[in-house]
Automatic annotation (TrEMBL):
Keyword set, alphabetical order: Hydrolase
Species, as recorded: Micromonospora sicca
SUPFAM superfamilies the record matches: Six-hairpin glycosidases (SSF48208)
The protein, known as: Glycoside hydrolase family 15 protein
Limits of the Trehalase-like N-terminal domain: 5-159
PANTHER family xrefs: TREHALASE
Keyword Lyase among UniProt keywords: no
Length: 611
């Protein structure tokens, strides 16, 4: 049967992992131990890699929505004989509220089927497959549970209907009439040392998840433009947060293709330093200091002190070795191979990594006064790296796997690191060498203004001494390298929009197979910063309408077919929406917290330093 289209999926989360369930009632993805652990359901990548379906027999139509301000999904199936609602949720720890949500989730998936009208015959097909579909578990009845075990994992399925077991799978047929309910829970536990999976009541799981997510949302009082879209996106980003550490994964999935049938299929279940500053800006707009401090803590512990190239990504508990390998037994989504687990981008030199921690720290400077010693040490180290390495070629923020180049966005982010360090000044401690950092900052700026500009294109380009356009240079006004109303930036925005945009979706470069959602929102932000309010607003609304029926964004969208592509849902895309909405709100309010142009950046007390 397959798992349909990427955008057909809904997203459930519990602060440790995520479930993707499609419109037909099929759970097609779950890595219950944690986001980047092996799967027990991976039908997304191969029809034989595991799923759990509850759906009507015969023909049906589907209508679905999240319960308000939650990640609890309600799907209504309507047939010729009646209708039923299936409500799905990953369990939160009983009683967990506010900032406790997700810290100690029991790793239980609950599904409640409720008859709404008439009567509906339904069927259940349970087919767990461990280790990305490699292992067929044994199914054994144990008390009131159907226990699946293999290798280091155990799943306990509890169902209020009779099940028929075969080798590695179970089936059930049942009818639900108006007012009747059927309950199902699936609990995970490691096979050794942790005891059996938690036993929870399905109705209570649903009720507790609703109360838990709403309590979290109740702490965040966003009052800007587009509140419905911003609140949904904030909840999605929170759902992609591994709460025990504070890591935000780029996406909960792996190897969903950037182009159907293509080879760019990467594992995104890790935390990127690049995403960090954008995430912090987004959460700064909608969250309170508790989340910000948690994320900063993860970054500080993960990055530590580095010898050699600074890793640009980490596992959710700070792991560095994310070595990539092929899962050759999987067919891939829509035949898109290779299927990759791990991500070799962790080995790359990406010089923009030096700027992200400094940019994030400057944004939340009021929360870092006094600055903790470990953060001060990290920021100084990143500043020194930027001063030392800015002139080196790198893989760039799109993580090119061919030759290194002198990417303009990487140089700009090295400038950002040095600029913010100069602005922090003595707050970075007695070892802060502000004069030397200011001199290096100005050297980077001169190089970008001369070698990063193309007279032929009338734009800043992808890399030094080239005419290739790239959407990454839209960061220049966003970090304050140049003001958005500078003639060169206006020309760059115009050329990028003209050459890389189609129907409001912006490609990263010429030949990129689809529009990259966050780049499209960067264009909104740049237009807003340039004072083009009407154009920015219209573009925002066109982009915001590109979500699926549940308000979820993929990484990319085909501008011609509208097909969602890449890993899903994508934190970067939702972060772009939040920040663009914030920029439009700031424009309407006549304010903006981003740094002004370089000539005006330095506080009066430091203007003589390094000038």
């Amino acid at each position: 049967m397959g798992c349909g289209r990427i955008a057909e999926h809904g997203f459930l989360a519990d602060g440790r992992s995520a479930v993707l369930v499609d419109r037909t009632g099929s759970v097609n993805w779950w890595c219950p131990a944690r986001f980047d652990a092996p799967s027990v359901f991976a039908r997304l990548l191969d029809d034989d890699a595991g799923h759990w379906v509850i759906r009507p027999e015969g023909r049906f139509s589907t209508d679905r929505a999240y319960l308000t301000d939650t990640l609890v999904l309600r799907t209504v199936f309507t047939t010729a004989t009646g209708s039923v609602a299936v409500t799905d949720a990953l369990a939160l720890e009983p009683g967990a509220r506010g900032h406790e949500v997700g810290l100690h989730s029991p790793r239980v998936l609950a599904r409640v089927v409720r008859g709404l009208s008439g009567e509906v015959p339904l069927r259940l097909h349970y087919r767990p497959r461990f280790e990305y579909g490699r292992m067929v578990p044994q199914l054994v009845r144990q008390d009131d549970a159907l226990v699946a075990s293999a290798a280091s994992a155990r799943l306990d399925l509890r169902a209020s209907i009779p099940l028929v077991c075969e080798v590695g799978e179970a089936f059930g047929s049942f009818t639900v009439r108006a007012g009747e309910t059927r309950h199902f829970t699936l609990g995970y536990a490691p096979a050794y040392g942790a005891g059996p999976p938690a036993v929870l009541d399905a109705e209570q799981v649903i009720d507790n998840a609703v109360a838990g997510w709403r309590s979290w949302m109740g702490l965040h009082d966003y009052r800007g433009l587009y509140p419905e879209q911003v609140r949904r996106s904030a909840l999605v980003v929170q759902g992609m947060t591994y709460r025990p550490s504070g890591a935000v994964v780029a996406a909960p999935t792996m190897s969903l293709p950037e182009e159907l049938g293509g080879e760019r299929n990467y594992d995104y279940r890790y935390g990127w330093v690049r995403d960090f500053s954008f995430t912090l800006e987004a959460l700064w707009r909608v969250a309170c200091a508790d989340e910000l401090n948690l994320h900063v803590g993860w970054l500080t512990r993960s990055m530590g002190m580095n010898e050699g190239i600074v890793p640009i990504m980490y596992g959710v508990e700070g792991e560095r070795d994310l070595t990539e390998h092929h899962l050759e037994h999987l067919a891939g989504f829509s035949g898109s191979r290779p299927v990759l687990v791990g991500n070799d981008a962790w080995r790359q030199r990406q010089n923009d990594v030096h700027g992200e921690p400094l940019s994030a720290a400057w944004l939340m400077r009021e929360h870092l006064d006094p600055m903790p010693p470990d953060i001060r040490q990290l920021l100084r180290a990143m500043t020194e790296r930027a001063a030392r390495d800015w002139h080196l070629p790198d893989a760039g923020m799109w993580e090119a796997r061919d030759a290194e180049r002198h990417y303009v966005s990487s140089k700009v982010q090295c400038w950002t690191a040095l600029d913010r360090a100069v602005r922090f000044g003595s707050h970075l401690g007695s070892e802060a060498d502000v004069a030397r950092w200011a001199a290096a900052r100005d050297e980077v700026r001169r190089a970008v203004l001369t070698r990063g500009w193309s007279d032929r294109q009338a734009a800043f380009t992808a890399a030094f001494d080239t005419d290739e356009l790239d959407a990454s240079v839209l960061l220049m006004p966003m970090v304050g390298f140049l003001p958005a109303d500078d003639a060169r930036i206006r020309s760059t925005i115009r050329m990028i929009e003209e050459r890389l945009s189609h129907d409001g979706l912006l490609r990263r470069w010429q030949g990129d197979p689809a529009g990259f959602v966050i780049c499209s929102f960067w264009l909104v932000s740049c237009l807003a910063l340039a004072g083009e309010r009407d154009r920015a607003g219209r573009l925002f609304e066109r982009l915001a309408d590109r979500v699926n029926d549940l308000g979820l964004f993929a990484e990319q969208i085909d501008p011609y077919s509208g097909e969602a592509l890449g890993n899903f849902p994508q934190a970067f895309s939702h972060i772009g929406l939040i920040n663009a909405a914030g920029d439009l709100t700031d424009l309407d309010a006549g304010r903006h917290d981003l740094p002004p142009a370089p000539e005006r950046l330095i506080p009066a007390s430091q203007k003589a330093v390094g000038r």
